[in-house]
Amino acid sequence: MKLASLKHGRDGRLVIVSEDLNWFTDAFLIAPTLQAALDDWDRCEPQLRALSESLEHNAVPRGRFHEHDAASPLPRAYQWADGSAYVNHVELVRRARGAEMPDSFWTDPLMYQGGSDGFLPPRDPIPLADEAWGCDLEAEVVVVTGDVPQGATREQALAAIRLVGLVNDVSLRNLIPAELAKGFGFVQSKPASALSPVLVTPETLGDRWNDGRLSGELWVQLNGRDFGRADAGV
Questions:
Q1: Residue 191 lies in a domain
Q2: Same domain, 67 and 91
């Protein structure tokens, strides 16, 4: 099942997207927004699946899905926790700003709490007041969870995953060293990021989703040009 939010108000309008990403149907009668669906997932999820099936059979009203009409599936969220589990990336980024990477990062990943008060629409330009700030991109895999109990086990955390997608985690590299030198975390150097136009339920990914890890090639483009192809499963 594939879910998206069309641009509408501050929290978007929830729609189901077809498997081929060409069509959508409105899910408003089930839940007006994705956040509303997540808050009542046990009730909404089977109804959303039934609607998705009807869309595949062209049995419900539908419209053309255009990514430029989409907000981030969650235009704002209650929590945004970014874990740096790809240690090679962490090592390179820290080295670039003259910081050593502790050996503990191999077993105790770095995590920070980012700003979730607003995510950029996936196809909108990234606003930047000054190029000297060093705007950079990070292609990342993101999961959206339901409620995760405090002190959750690995199995409980995995069971809480509702949706999987991608995120462009925007960084202002030239602001980071001075901000971290203050002894606290990112604020100004980590502006709003952008989620992928569509989030999917884990089973949609087939064998590419295994034990909480997404495998496959993550194809990155910068302004329409190939930039990198990372193996997300490594």
A1: yes
A2: no
Domain that holds residue 128: 81-231
Q: Are residues 195 and 97 in the same domain?
A: yes
Same domain, 205 and 121: yes
Closest Cα to residue 142, out of 214, 211, 204?
214
Q: Say yes or no: 46 and 119 in one domain.
A: no
Residues 6+ positions from 120 with CB-CB distance below 8 Å: 72, 126, 170, 192, 193, 194
Distances (CA, A) of 83 to 80, 142, 161: 10, 10, 15
Q: Tokens in use for 11?
A: 């929290």
For residue 116, give the CATH number of its domain: 3.90.850.10
> What is the pLDDT tens value at each position of the chain, 234 positions in all?
999 999 999 999 999 999 999 999 999 999 999 999 999 999 999 999 999 999 999 999 999 999 999 999 999 999 999 988 778 878 887 888 788 888 888 888 888 899 999 999 999 999 999 999 999 999 999 999 999 999 999 999 999 999 999 999 999 999 999 998 998 888 999 999 999 999 999 999 999 999 999 999 999 999 889 999 988 887
Whether 152 is in a domain gets the answer yes
Q: Nearest-CA neighbor of 37 among 159, 146, 198? A: 146
Give Cβ neighbours of residue 199 (< 8 Å, ≥ 6 apart): 2, 3, 4, 34, 73, 144, 163, 164, 165
Is residue 230 within a helix (H) or strand (E), and if so which, with residue range? strand 225-231
Asked if residue 144 lies in contact with residue 199, where contact means CB atoms within 8 angstroms, the answer is yes
Domain boundary among 71, 95, 127: 71
